[in-house]
UniProtKB/TrEMBL annotation:
Transmembrane segments: none annotated. This is UPF0149 family protein. SUPFAM superfamilies: Sec-C motif (SSF103642), YgfB-like (SSF101327). It comes from the Bacteria. Pfam families: SEC-C (PF02810), UPF0149 (PF03695). InterPro entries: SEC_C_motif, YgfB-like, YgfB-like_sf. Coiled coil: none annotated.
Length: 269
């Protein structure tokens, strides 16, 4: 009997390295998103009905959106946002490590969000983090729009959904289609601002209240929604393209085979 392998999760130092990498990429591309957004985007790709290749999705996340047309086995060319091939390779290495971790978490049989194997989105409580700063530092950020807990993660998830609509199209089965809608609704809810009364701090246990209890519950529902989406597409399998039979020509029309005869005197005979 072989022991199951466990995907090594990213350490806090490696997560900080990803943040630093993205900061550096922004010097060459202003639209480079935060890691929280990237993590939501990654989760959606893991849940997608069709396995979307790296050459198709990485330019959408960090480039101009144009998928790279690569032959099988061909190496990924250097994207403009990266300083050099080594930097790109390191980002991809960390990205794929996180990918494997998310796959393992979503495929685990968990019954509670308290289970240590449960999927943990890289969601930030920016409001809690800022509220925990010294007063003079908080004053410097006054007037800025601060995203709600989990909001940037959810925006990243839906960014992937919206950019591959065919892969997220509702299945024909009504029950499965409702399952899809309900799960996506739970994630879309997190893209909205948290306007409830701050009751808890997700940044630190003893930090100032920054997040409503309703938001915490909505976040939990979004995690279960990701599990549902992963299971839904796994159960349905890849979309099968049905080939439509071309309409049969009329009996007096030229035959489709190119013989020059009428259909009724050729293949329609």
């Amino acid at each position: 009997m072989t022991e199951s392998t466990t995907a090594p999760g990213l350490t806090s130092d490696e997560l900080q390295e990803l943040d630093d990498l993205l900061d550096d990429l922004r010097q060459r591309g202003e639209e480079i998103p935060q890691w929280e957004f990237c993590d939501g985007f990654l989760a959606a790709l893991v849940c997608s009905r069709r396995p979307i290749p790296l050459a198709e999705y990485l330019p959408m996340l960090l480039g101009d959106g144009a998928a790279l047309d690569l032959a099988e086995g061909e190496a990924l060319p250097l994207l403009p946002a990266f300083q050099d091939a080594a930097q790109q390779a390191r980002f991809v290495e960390l990205w794929l490590r996180r990918w494997d971790e998310v796959v393992q978490q979503l495929d685990a049989q968990v019954e509670s969000l308290d289970d240590e194997r449960t999927y943990q989105p890289e969601a930030m409580d920016m409001r809690g983090a800022i509220a925990s700063l010294p007063e003079e530092e908080r004053a410097e950020m006054e007037g800025q729009e601060i995203p709600s807990f989990g909001q940037v993660w959810a925006l990243g998830f839906m960014f992937a959904v919206e950019n591959w609509p065919e892969d997220w199209a509702a299945p024909r089965d009504k029950e499965a289609a409702q399952w899809l809608d309900d799960a996506l609704d739970s994630i879309v809810a997190l893209t909205e601002d948290d306007t409830g009364k701050p009751e808890v701090c997700m940044y630190s246990e003893d930090g100032p209240a920054s997040t409503s209890q309703a938001r915490v519950e909505a976040f939990g529902e979004a995690i279960w929604a990701v599990y549902d989406l992963r299971q839904l597409w796994k159960s349905l399998g890849p979309r099968v393209e049905t080939l439509r039979k071309p309409p049969e020509p009329g009996r007096n029309d030229p035959c489709w085979c190119g013989s020059g005869k009428k259909f009724k005197k050729c293949h329609g005979a």
